What we know:
Blueprint (H helix, E strand, L loop, with lengths): L3 H8 L1 H21 L8 H10 L5 H8 L3 H13 L3 E5 L7 E5 L1 H21 L5 H15 L4
Antiparallel strand pairs: 1-2
Helix pairs in contact: 1-2, 2-6, 3-6, 4-5
Amino acid sequence: MTGGRAIAAANGPVGYALSEAAKAHRTQLQLRVGPLGLHLGQELLLVDVHRHPGTTQAELVQRLDFEQPTIAKAITRMERTGFVERAADPGDRRVTRLRLTERGEAAVQEVIAAWAHADMASTSGLTEAETSELVRLLCKIRDNRP
Length: 146
């Protein structure tokens, strides 16, 4: 390892290790959700809409803490690929509700399994105690955000 990566690893070893571990985990997850026709991040939307049928984009933004343009773009893509559909709210035609299509519903359990498999693959060299400790420590780091 030379150049920028070496400098980053030497001067920010925690951040560098977190970044590399996150990339490895994302790769594991993409290997599993990609064949379903989903891009990373869309699986979160899929499962959330499954859990909250009839939700709005604004509600997704609030629950998932994503930016509104990101949600809008992902929903548009997921609608084009047949995972979600939009429908006007019967009580207020200005509001658009989201629900999964048959294809979307069929993918939910596969996405949940993909999350579990990606975690198992990513932690395959760790003991159960080490995995629990890793999760605990990562949550502590997460909680340090401003």
